[in-house]
Specification:
By secondary structure, the chain is of the alpha/beta class. Helices cover 43% and strands 21% of the residues. The protein has eleven helices and twelve strands. The strands form two sheets. A six-stranded parallel sheet has the order 2-1-3-4-5-11, with helices on both faces. A six-stranded mixed sheet has the order 7-6-8-9-10-12, sandwiched between helices.
Length: 312
């Protein structure tokens, strides 16, 4: 994963134009149709409820692949003069110009979940995310532990080139290559559509009956993967690992369809995203990167406080 290099530009922006001291904070995520992003919304609500000066709006496109729609949402927020933006960019390159425009309008931006392109460096104030490379490596370690070091492992991914996908899937693959003889099948991209993932996984299972493992790299992809495994009668016959923690994935863990699922601190992204914007508006220094963490949830720990605090 590339090193994160962010400048603390809060005071520069404030001197240039002066931040609005109150008003709307726009939270713009990759899609509103996912439980993961709704949990980000709940975190933002909690942060707003803890203060009385700012309001917030929550929006996102219908699907994660509707990148142009997300760009328009950011542009609209800038045009209506919001006090700040919390953004989970669907595409690292496509969202960079809009974030630069927010910077030029003296609107602070906090990025969550997925990194922006290097060209955007210095135009946003903080990045709050799972360390996706470290998370991918943790999943790879679990795969080797449970599936062994030889055989085929399929990767069911989501949207190619998204910052979180590059780190998560890239480091999963790199770790397997460096520490095992496991052969990677894929990756295959569902476009974060559960039905696509189900159909793709069904085809992969049929074409590769000798798979020893499979990894579904985000919520809708892992759900579709899990359903395909059940339909194919393959539950428990290969090591299936997921990512994220909605009710479907929790049930797959309890039923033994998934050996484990890696769950991000989605609530923390929303809560800390709002809190960070508020600190910036108050001209307080903020950290350039905040790791919101990941928990590997399996049958043994799913009912513990550690797991329940991140599941949604």
């Amino acid at each position: 994963m590339r090193p994160i290099k962010l400048a603390l530009v809060t005071s520069t922006l404030a001197l240039a134009a002066g931040f609005a001291q109150a008003g709307e904070i726009a939270v713009i995520v990759k899609t509103t149709s996912s439980n993961f992003w709704q949990n980000v919304n709940r975190g933002a609500e909690a942060a707003i409820a803890a203060q009385g000066e700012h309001s917030f709006t929550f929006d996102g496109p219908a699907t994660e692949s509707a990148v142009a729609d997300q760009v328009n949402l950011v542009e609209n927020a800038i045009n209506r003069g919001v006090a700040g933006i919390v953004l989970a960019p669907s595409d690292p390159e496509a969202l960079a110009p809009a974030v630069k425009r927010a910077y030029e309008a003296a609107i602070p931006v906090v990025i969550i979940d997925s990194a922006l392109a290097d060209s955007a460096e210095g135009t946003y104030q903080s990045f709050l995310s799972t360390d996706n490379c470290a998370a991918g490596e943790e999943v790879a370690k679990r795969m080797i532990e449970k599936a062994g070091t030889e055989g085929k492992v399929a990767i069911m991914s989501y949207v190619a080139g998204v910052g979180s996908e590059i780190g998560r899937v890239g480091c999963f693959s790199d770790y397997l290559a460096a520490n095992s003889q496991l052969e990677i099948v894929g990756p295959f991209y569902s476009q974060s559509q559960m039905a696509n993932a189900l159909n793709q996984t069904t085809d992969i299972l049929a074409a590769n009956p000798d798979l020893v493992g499979i990894f579904g790299a985000n919520e809708p992809t892992a759900v579709g993967m899990g359903r395909a495994i059940v339909q194919a009668g393959k539950a428990g016959q290969l090591v299936a690992l997921g990512f994220d923690g909605n009710a479907d994935l929790q049930q797959f863990v309890r039923d033994g369809v998934l050996d484990a699922t890696a769950v991000q601190g989605s609530f923390a992204m929303g809560e800390k995203g709002i809190e960070t914007i508020i600190r910036i508006l108050g001209d307080d220094a903020v950290e350039p990167f905040v790791n919101t963490g990941v928990v590997l949830v399996d049958k043994d720990n799913i009912d513990t406080d550690t797991a329940q605090n991140v599941l949604y």
